[in-house]
Write a structure and sequence with these properties.
It contains four helices and five strands, in the order ααβββαββα. By secondary structure, the chain is an alpha+beta fold.
Length: 163
């Protein structure tokens, strides 16, 4: 990715942050619980992080309608379709953010991924990967990202066999 694209992504990211700041100052974001606002900020930040890494983000907060849950980000990493769960924290705990992606959440993401892949126009399903991005938005510190590519697979059995 060239410097011009990097600069454009940075400009859009700063503009979004400025609009969020204005909304908070005017009290427009007050109706949302703090943990939801933090989660959305983390998803926005992770989206720009992935774009800087060369990913093509095609969906944010995607849901299938009839199925419970949503996928935070769906992106292409070359020919690989990535379903990304974003976990955001505002403090460094003893427990890392990515631990919050438990069996229940992984199963929801798998179910949603199957539905998403079924709706793609191509005949053959693309290769799929499930990623987790931990975003640390600690006040007074620089944003930190930990990206776990291929954090889990299509089944729990697959994960145990690869360990």
């Amino acid at each position: 990715m060239g410097w011009m694209e990097q600069a454009r992504i940075g400009c859009v990211e700063r503009t979004l942050a400025g609009l969020d700041w204005v909304a908070r100052r005017r009290g427009l974001a007050d109706g949302m619980p703090a943990h939801l606002a933090t989660g959305i900020e983390g998803e926005d930040t992770a989206c720009f992080y992935l774009r800087r890494k060369g990913y093509t983000v095609v969906a944010r907060r995607w849901s299938a309608g009839e199925l419970p849950g949503d996928v935070d980000l769906i992106a292409w990493d070359g020919p690989m379709l990535c379903f990304v769960e974003v976990k955001t924290r505002t403090a460094r705990d003893a427990t890392p953010a990515e631990v919050a992606v438990d069996n229940h959440k992984r199963n929801i993401l798998r179910r949603l991924a199957r539905q998403y892949v079924r709706q793609l126009p191509q005949e053959a399903a693309p290769p799929v990967r499930f990623d987790v991005v931990s975003v640390y938005l600690v006040p007074g510190e620089k944003k930190k990202f930990v990206h776990f590519e291929g954090n889990f697979g299509w089944s729990e059995r697959q994960e145990r066999d690869s360990v």
